[in-house]
Design brief:
By secondary structure, the protein is of the alpha+beta class. The protein contains 14 helices and 43 strands. The protein folds into four domains: 85-386, Nucleotidyltransferase, domain 5, CATH 3.30.420; 391-473, Ubiquitin-like (UB roll); 482-595, no CATH class; 612-706, Beta-grasp domain (Ubiquitin-like (UB roll), Roll), CATH 3.10.20. Residues 6-203 form the SHS2 domain.
């Protein structure tokens, strides 16, 4: 029987490691391994920047491994936690009728919780495009059966099983660039995980996860963090800085090519004095201690970034920190991390995978800190937990995790196609106000899209198989209605009137948004349409384009020149009318020149009524004006109701002085001068003796006696 070979690739920022493993009865055997470094900086911070360059390096590693292991077509990889999104999710399962639970039951719960996490991601408002994220791994934080926490459900019996896990997601760009490099190298991606997940599976078995530990995979571009506590992995995180920051610091300090600076960094702990040539061609021999002193600040800054991420994820300093990855060999880094976390130096250590559960033996080339992640990738590939199937959507390859029963909908979402685009949207309707009434006119219905699998019609709910070819034709949206005024209004019948002996047809007045329009005027959303017949005399006259200009009369009022505007005289069917008089069909309208206004109209008085008061004179009522008014036109008295002569000089005065006893005597025709000489006149106002100039008011009583 042919042995099953597993191919794992650790595609790092500084180097690519490939190893071949073979599952055996007692664990994995490492068959072959190859390691090559990038010739250029084709990767930065865990992200592939030069796909062809990385693909060429993968192809070379693959070719070397194939010489001893035969053709390789599939591989497992891990991604750095760049732009990592972590979600906690849980799922439950009714187990009351299942009997003893099996491994498959646990698997079912894991997949259900993963789908829950994916739904949380799709509904997230914190990410600009949640659909552009891939799930790259998960860690189970615990099982619960009927309220009791358990390490495993296998063999247990109960009513309700619950799982809690942490799912990790990375942007599509990170995964797609890796997929492109693998495809260019002739490889198919079958298993994908996160680098800290791979590392933690090697160094921190489940028996150690009750401890509060922080595992930091310090690579060249990123430092990935995982935290364990209370028996499970509780958090994942990433720091976008690692060993390259130290290399760049050396490069800047001594003007070195990046690759030369990397060589100097690796020699710091091996040699007391290091020789190198800068970009100017000058040869330097510098003590390692001097170089370390110059980059000490940069090492401390990297340590602070790592410590800050650990504290963010864990809340407090952990019990211990395990450093792995090639960047963990950076001089003085463990000491700086311990200082930043205020931990004893012995609690921060660089770990090597000398012995790992699940492996029969580990070759020396993988027994360094940078061998942890590739071993973890291979171990996860052998665990059969999270694998891909490959399908084609509109001739584009799409990789999907085998989360339970995959459907066409999963493939369409994985291809970045919005499922809503398959249902042709109805056209935008029009909302139009017609004569102050809001009316809605719907758009046309959309046409649904078409889906086929391997040329056969399919539905979103149809199941997927590996290598399926899916064609998706998006639906067509319906058109918005094209409408004109004639489509939305009922045009009232016109009528005729006679205006100044001219027979005139009165047509409906049509406006759109207050502007004159016709029945063919096109309408837009939110337009306001008005179509109505003129009803009043003013409206009818305006529609006939008859200009009824006012006549301007000039006057001088109390010494000030004033203008008085008078509209033409209007009559309807022989009767005086106003601009708001309602007009019926066949009405006869006559418009005549304006006549001068009356004095009262020019002065703006509502009326010229005189207010009077009544005083009892010797027991007889006597009426007299309450105030004195004077009205003159061209220095001549004039009636308030008289027409004001054009250009007339009008004087109007009102005295607010109250009438006096003398005014009462004049109004009563009592003249003291007509009395006999020597007569004595006695005047009483309300029983009191007063003078002739004493003021009077309404209801007063005046008695006059003559002796």
């Amino acid at each position: 029987m042919e042995k099953q070979l597993l191919f794992a690739l650790d595609i790092g920022t500084r180097s690519v490691v490939g190893l071949i493993g073979c599952p055996g009865p007692n664990g994995l055997d490492i068959i072959a391994t190859e390691r090559m470094e990038h010739h250029t900086r084709s990767m930065l911070d865990g992200q592939i920047h030069d796909v062809p360059e990385v693909a060429q390096l993968i192809t070379q590693i693959k070719a070397k491994l194939e010489k001893s292991c035969g053709p390789l077509h599939e591989t497992a990889v891990a991604a750095a936690g760049r732009s990592l999104c972590t979600l906690r999710a849980q799922a439950d399962l009714d187990t009351s009728h299942r009997g003893a639970l099996s491994v498959q039951d646990e698997r079912t719960l894991e997949l259900a919780a993963l789908q829950c996490a994916q739904r949380q991601l799709a509904a997230s408002s914190e990410l600009p495009d949640p659909a552009a994220y891939y799930c790259v791994g998960y860690s189970v934080t615990g099982f619960t059966l009927d309220g009791t926490k358990l390490i495993s459900l296998v063999g247990q019996r109960g009513k309700t099983a619950v799982i809690e896990l942490i799912a990790t997601f990375l942007p599509r760009q990170v995964i797609d660039s890796m997929q492109s490099a693998l495809t260019a190298a002739g490889l198919e991606l079958t298993t994908l995980t996160l680098e800290p997940i791979a590392a933690i599976n090697v160094l921190i078995p489940t028996t150690m996860r009750h401890l509060n530990l922080a595992l930091v995979d310090v690579g060249a571009g990123t430092s990935d963090v995982a935290i364990t506590r209370d028996g499970s992995v509780i958090a994942y995180g990433m720091v976008p800085s690692a060993g390259d920051e130290i290399t760049e610091a050396i490069s800047h300090q001594y003007l070195l090519d990046f690759n030369v600076a990397e060589t100097v960094k690796r020699q710091l702990l091996k040699h007391k004095r290091i020789t190198f040539t800068d970009v100017l061609g000058i040869v330097h021999k510098v003590p390692a201690a001097e170089i370390l002193e110059r980059i000490q600040t940069n090492i401390a800054e990297l340590a602070r970034d790592i410590a800050a991420q650990i504290l963010t994820l864990n809340g407090v300093a952990p019990q211990a920190v395990l450093l792995v990855g090639g960047g963990s060999l950076t001089p003085l880094l463990p000491q700086a991390v311990a200082q930043s976390l205020e931990l004893p130096l012995a609690r921060v250590a660089i770990r090597k995978p000398e012995t790992v559960d699940g492996f029969n033996s580990i070759p020396a080339v993988l027994s360094e800190p940078d061998g942890v992640t590739p071993l973890g990738i291979l171990k996860i590939a052998a665990s059969n937990t999270l694998h891909f199937i490959s399908v084609w959507v509109n001739d584009n390859p799409v990789r999907l995790f085998n989360l339970s029963e995959l459907t066409v909908a999963d493939a369409i979402l994985g291809a970045g196609i919005d499922a809503r685009s398959l249902h042709g949207r109805p056209g935008m309707g029009l909302t139009i106000r017609v004569n102050s009434e809001t009316r809605f006119f719907p758009g046309q219905s959309g046409q649904p899209g078409q889906i086929t699998i391997n040329g056969e019609p399919a539905k979103l709910t149809d199941s997927l198989v590996d290598k399926a070819s899916i064609t998706v034709a998006k639906g067509k949206s319906g058109a918005s209605p094209r409408m004109c005024v004639a489509d939305v209004v009922d045009v009232p019948d016109s009528f005729t009137v006679t205006i100044n002996t001219m027979l005139t047809i009165i047509q409906p007045v049509i406006t759109v948004n207050g502007q004159a329009a016709t029945m063919e005027t096109q309408l837009n959303d939110r337009d306001e349409v008005c179509c109505c017949l003129p009803k009043t005399a003013d409206e009818v006259i305006n529609t006939c384009e008859i200009t009824a200009k006012p006549t301007i009369f000039n006057y001088v009022i109390n010494g000030t020149e004033r203008e008085f505007s008078v509209m033409p005289n209007l009559s309807v069917n022989g009767k005086p009318a106003r601009p708001d008089t309602l007009i019926e069909a066949n009405a006869v309208i006559l418009i005549q020149d304006a006549t001068p206004p009356t004095i009262t109209e020019v002065l703006g008085l509502d009326s010229f009524r005189e207010e009077t008061l009544v005083v009892q004179f010797n027991g007889t009522p006597c009426r007299l004006p309450a105030r004195r008014q004077s009205l003159l036109c061209d220095n001549q008295p004039i009636s308030p109701d008289a027409l004001a002569p054009i250009g007339g000089n009008i004087t109007y005065t009102v005295s607010q002085t109250p009438p006096t006893v003398s005014d009462v005597l004049l109004a009563a025709d009592f003249d003291p001068r007509s009395l006999p000489l020597g007569s004595q006149v006695n005047v009483l106002l309300n029983g009191r003796t007063v003078e002739y100039l004493a003021p009077v008011k309404n209801g007063d009583q005046i008695e006059v006696t003559v002796k």
